[in-house]
From TrEMBL:
Keywords: Oxidoreductase. This is NADP-dependent oxidoreductase domain-containing protein. Residues 41-334 form the NADP-dependent oxidoreductase domain. It holds the Pfam family Aldo_ket_red. The lineage of its organism: Eukaryota, Fungi, Dikarya, Basidiomycota, Agaricomycotina. It comes from Mycena citricolor.
Length: 381
């Protein structure tokens, strides 16, 4: 059941890497195509197509969306964009179900079966997504989040049925406890079903809770990672960038908080990122923040979004950044991370467990290394 999926290591043709357990070629990061509003800025179709064109022209081919993003217009715009350019088969397209994608349609009186992880919700969502995306298949279908009601058996049997029908190629899961994913994949392997091959969740240099259970689970199951919120809701910015926003009135995202300015911890981390950016010759601290994640685990494909082409192109710089172990250690020292129990007692498996050292020292096998970068920034020796 082992499959191989490949991802491009740099923007442009010729360089591909495995996306762990599947069989498609995608770029080293995904572009989250949501038509921003509701406190996240605003974009019309023309601006959205311009951003998608810039992403594709730069070598990008992995697009992330969901059934309910922006009242379904995200999927609609992406489908129309791919159809107009005639590039559907060149795109690795991922979408999600679980959310109620009819939430804002008052003419749909009974909405209970348009949400959740049951088979009816799954079927309704996928059929609707195929129409909106103007395609006959979805490359990666994500469970958007664990709903607690549908059983693992119902979920995995339903998802596998979509794979056998050819409507979905690979399966992913997002925002779900590690134990659920592990149990679901074991059920799939035991019963000849399709397992999850990629996990999507919140992870950034400010918030490393992802590292407690999710990353060890992903390593054990050979899955890829697609972290979102990699720039901490846009709060990782220089003092100069924040002042420019204040002067222009542009401010920042206000979806989760009316306070768009950085707090003290966010300022400390931004200053640390700026220091590292200066050492390696990076043009932006956001690219350093993205590169940090890509140095932590193999098969890490950060999801980026935005409203401006210049921001997109700036973030692409992360693919060329090579951080030293000392620089990673420095960034992690700014806000110390508590791995929690039982890691505080038995470690993480990378080094020998102290309780067993009395029996003799055993060298540990090295963990799988991250994908090497193909370029170096000016200023790196």
């Amino acid at each position: 059941m082992c499959k191989e999926e490949y991802v491009m290591s740099s923007w442009g043709p010729g360089h591909v890497h495995r996306l762990s357990m599947s069989n498609v070629s995608v770029v080293s990061r995904a572009f989250q195509a949501s038509i921003h509003k509701l406190g996240m800025g605003a974009m019309d179709k023309t601006a959205s197509f311009k951003l998608l064109d810039a992403y594709f022209d730069a070598g990008g081919n992995f697009i992330d969306t969901a059934n309910a993003y922006q009242d379904e217009t995200s999927e609609m715009f992406i489908g129309e964009w791919m159809e107009q350019r005639g590039i559907r088969d060149q795109i690795v397209l991922s979408t999600k179900f679980t959310m109620n994608f009819k939430a804002r349609q008052n003419d749909v009186q009974q909405q209970v079966n348009y949400a959740g992880n049951n088979r009816k919700s799954m079927t309704l969502s996928v059929e609707a997504s195929l129409k909106k995306l103007r395609t006959s298949y979805i490359d990666i279908l994500y469970v958007h989040f664990w709903h607690w009601d549908a059983s693992i058996r119902e979920l995995m049997d339903g998802l596998h049925n979509l794979v056998t029908l050819g409507k979905v190629l690979y399966l992913g899961i997002s925002d779900t406890p590690a134990w659920v994913v592990a149990q679901a994949n074991q059920y799939a392997l035991d019963h000849g079903k399709s397992p999850f091959v990629i996990y999507e969740g919140c992870w950034n240099v400010m918030d490393r809770a992802f590292e407690r259970e999710i990353i060890p689970m992903v390593r054990a199951h050979g899955m890829a990672l697609a972290p979102w919120n990699v720039l901490a809701q846009g709060k990782l910015r220089t003092d100069a960038e924040e002042e420019a926003r204040r002067v222009s009135g542009e401010k920042g995202r206000t979806l989760f908080s009316a306070d768009w300015e950085r707090n003290e911890d966010e300022k400390k981390m931004s200053h640390a990122l700026e220091k590292v950016a200066g050492e390696i010759g990076a043009k932006s601290i956001s690219s350093v923040a993205i590169a940090y994640l890509m140095h932590k685990v193999p098969y890490c494909f950060p999801i980026i979004g935005g409203r401006k082409v210049e921001h997109l192109l700036s973030n692409i710089e992360a693919l060329e950044i090579s951080l030293s172990p000392e620089q990673i250690e420095f960034l992690e020292s700014v806000l110390p991370f508590d791995p929690g129990f039982p890691a505080t007692m038995i470690g993480n498996g990378i080094s020998s467990t102290p309780f067993l050292e009395t029996a003799g020292h055993c060298d540990r096998m090295p963990v799988q290394q991250t994908i090497p970068h193909t370029k170096k920034l000016v200023g790196r020796d």
